[in-house]
Design the sequence.
């Protein structure tokens, strides 16, 4: 007999750093999911990824308090900021793109770096080939104020 679905939720958790503290603990606890079991399973699945990289995670939970998770690759903006070498700024000490994209350029990346990002993100993008995926990544770069050269 199939499990009865209770719902789904989305969280963005740093790779290898899931712990019961907010925002993970309360979000899972109010849905009746075993927090420590989730943290151990998530950290085990993301141990081969770069520690601290944000991982969008879709959690499907069932009425018998069990769960399944789908971990996606980090956002394109994370890869672009890393490739461009943007330094952390602001109150939250995170790298930021341009205040006015299109008028202001904060960094540049090469076509080779864009191809590398597109290949890493390929399984999560709705593109048929790497060339189409590169166009998606270039669009993200433009909207962040990052110029693609070469």
Sequence:
């Amino acid at each position: 007999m199939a499990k009865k679905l209770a719902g789904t939720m989305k969280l963005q958790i740093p790779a290898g750093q899931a712990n019961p503290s907010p925002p993970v603990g309360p979000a899972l606890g109010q849905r009746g999911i075993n927090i420590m079991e989730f943290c151990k399973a998530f950290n085990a699945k993301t141990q081969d990824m770069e520690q601290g990289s944000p991982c969008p995670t879709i959690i499907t939970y069932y009425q018998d308090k069990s769960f399944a998770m789908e971990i996606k690759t980090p956002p394109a903006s994370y890869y672009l900021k890393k490739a461009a070498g943007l330094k952390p700024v602001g109150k939250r000490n995170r790298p930021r793109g341009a205040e006015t994209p299109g008028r202001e350029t904060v960094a540049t990346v090469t076509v080779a770096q864009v191809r590398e990002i597109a290949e890493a993100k390929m399984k999560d993008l709705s593109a048929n080939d790497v060339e189409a995926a590169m166009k998606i990544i270039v669009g993200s770069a433009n909207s962040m104020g990052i110029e693609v050269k070469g």
Q: What stands out?
A: Residues 130-144 form the longest helix (15 residues). The helical segments are 24-29, 35-45, 76-84, 111-121, 130-144.
